[in-house]
Known about the structure:
With 196 residues, the chain is of the alpha/beta class. The chain is built from 6 helices and 8 strands. It has 2 domains: 1-81, P-loop containing nucleotide triphosphate hydrolases (Rossmann fold, 3-Layer(aba) Sandwich), CATH 3.40.50.300; 82-196, 3-Layer(aba) Sandwich (Rossmann fold). The strands form 2 sheets. Strands 2-1-4-5 form a 4-stranded antiparallel beta sheet, covered by helices on one side. A 4-stranded parallel beta sheet has the order 3-8-7-6, covered by helices on one side.
Amino acid sequence: MIEPILEMRDVVKSYGENSILKGVSFQVRRGETKIIIGGSGSGKSTLLKLAMGLERPDEGQILIESEDITKMRERDLARVRMKIGMVFQESALFDSMSVRDNVAYQLHEKGTNDQELESRVRQNLGFVGLEDAIEKFPAELSGGMKRRVAIARALAGEPNIMFYDEPTAGLDPITSRKINQLIIMLRDLKMSPACL
């Protein structure tokens, strides 16, 4: 049996008196997609923050590739986060950086040499159909283009897991369909589990 790449076990999370998650449990295996649906404030983004180790649960366990991150030290969490690609709801691109520099950001942090960096940036932008936008800045891009750049940036670190926080929110139906097709294609090509 294939081990889950992400597992939540009886996760509880509250903010003050406001109980957000009450005993949430699920597993995601390689090649699967888990879609979490709920209204605003129902805990979708909180689940992603917990899975990234950006917040800690009040109770329960969270395992990434069989490693319990629930009480993990920040230094060890940084290593686990390198296995995860994250596409935020509002794309979260750096406005002062070109598309190239946004996609290359994590590669710069890892000390990737210039030739490999350029190759991977172009490859990822090609995958999302935006290689021609490499010199543009986020202000010059449509909402859908920004989401595709955010996907290319998340892919740059060659993650084992991809998280998407409402990747089609605020986009028109045609652009939403393109983003969803990209996510499915990525899952099928890389066999990376996706949580939306």
